[in-house]
Amino acid sequence: MNDNLHQLRCFGCGTRIAGAEAQPDFRCALCGDLFEVDYPGWIQKKGPDRPNPGALKWLWRERRCSSETLDRSGVWRFRELLPILDSFGDAVTLREGDTPLYRLPRIARALGVDQLYAKHQGMNPTGSFKDTGMTAAMSVARERRFEWVACASTGNTSASMAAYAARAGLKSLVLIPDGKIAWGKLSQAMDYGALTCQVKTDFDGCVRVLTEIVKRAPIYLLNSVNPYRLEGQKTPAFEIAESFDWNVPDHLIVPGGNLGNSSALGKGFRELKELGLVARMPRISVIQAAGANPLVRSLAETKGSSIEPVEAHTRATAIRIGNPASWRKAARVIQETGGWCLDVTEAEIAIAKAELGAEGLGCEPASAVTLAGFKKLRAQKLISSGDTVVLVLTGHTLKDADYTIDFHRGTLLKDEEKVGLESEIEALRRNAIATDATPEAVLSAIKGAKA
Ligand code: F0G
């Protein structure tokens, strides 16, 4: 059976090509822009390939009770909306997706909203949202009989790629910026058997080097310029819509780095709407770190018509990206849904991360920008108390334990970064206490514990 119904359409000039015709760097030969996966059979309202919304909702729900490998994946459970493989039987899966949607009651109360949720993509097999995209693109790599796959990464893509390559029996090459990624992520790439190069440059430099490599050697590129990554990464939109019984939330708030994820989630909601599974899209807002905010600047200064790369600096190393590949796609998502694009400071990120930790969830710093951004949108009255809001938490708290420990020890932020926020930070810090080995010493620690 041929499960494949897709084409690639250039986001810039609209040129259509067959999937196998893509260049190694996934750029359009005519205009240099990126491709999107497109399903021409969905356009004709009564065509045989157009999915039937009622039947799909029922089928996807049924599959939640199934023990079939594909049905247990939160990505392939929705396979009718990502017909990118010649055979779904070729899918490389680690049971990704189907991540929890948690309520955030304490934070919601403090900020005066009723319905605040976190979609925790850090609860994926390798601890980040990248797994939902990797299962899709790695499956394509294997179907197309590549021996080697590669990515440039701030850490999570490489961890995910290395794991899925190992499962697929492929060799993987990782380029990471020297000294600028969290140890948890580096350890994963090593453990899953990748050839890992710590390159003496930043993420944007790693991308430049890798783009040349894939043009010279038969290596399959698995950065998010690869449009199949985004097909997997759109599926959390389906999970979110399903969780709300196909009434989408008012707001979705996503961190922005290379801007593949916001693009993918926007595509997911757009397709649900076009196919009649939901009535509208949520407003999708993208939050960047203030030291790595090229999209914020692009939208403010040029309404998203051009982008000026920046030299990126932030302790949220996952989003330390100055020249994001998918900026045009992300700008479109923000503009078509009426969302916003904001940046947040290092102290705001650290506070938000500790607040999510105190809700019993935790996440990595890059994910916490969503809460920091939400607080700003709420303060500006752009989100009202009756709105339903979903924050997308992209990475697990254990990815970057050094950051968390430094925050609680009080060594993370410089004095000038904390100005005006000192008491908020102090109230959240929970440093470990060295005690004598006596019950009295521990009891006195309990007495002195913060409320
Ligand atoms: N959050 C986390 C935890 C990430 O790892 C990333 C990106 C993002 C947010 C931003 O998502 O790039 O789609 O806008 N990490 C990439 C990597 C770049 O190499 O792991 P984006």
Short summary:
The protein has 451 residues and is of the alpha/beta class. It has helices at 53-63, 69-72, 105-111, 130-143, 156-168, 183-191, 203-216, 227-233, 235-243, 260-274, 294-302, 327-337, 346-358, 365-379, 401-409, 415-418, 422-428, 439-447, and strands spanning 7-10, 16-17, 35-38, 101-103, 115-120, 148-152, 171-177, 195-199, 219-221, 251-255, 283-289, 341-344, 388-393.
Report on this model:
The protein has 451 residues and is α/β, with parallel strands linked by helices. It has helices at 53-63, 69-72, 105-111, 130-143, 156-168, 183-191, 203-216, 227-233, 235-243, 260-274, 294-302, 327-337, 346-358, 365-379, 401-409, 415-418, 422-428, 439-447, and strands at 7-10, 16-17, 35-38, 101-103, 115-120, 148-152, 171-177, 195-199, 219-221, 251-255, 283-289, 341-344, 388-393. A six-stranded mixed β-sheet has the order 4-5-13-10-11-12, sandwiched between helices. Helix 4 (130-143) runs parallel beside helix 5 (156-168) and helix 10 crosses helix 12 (327-337). The radius of gyration is 22 Å and the shape is globular. The N and C termini lie far apart (61 Å). Bound molecules: ligand F0G.
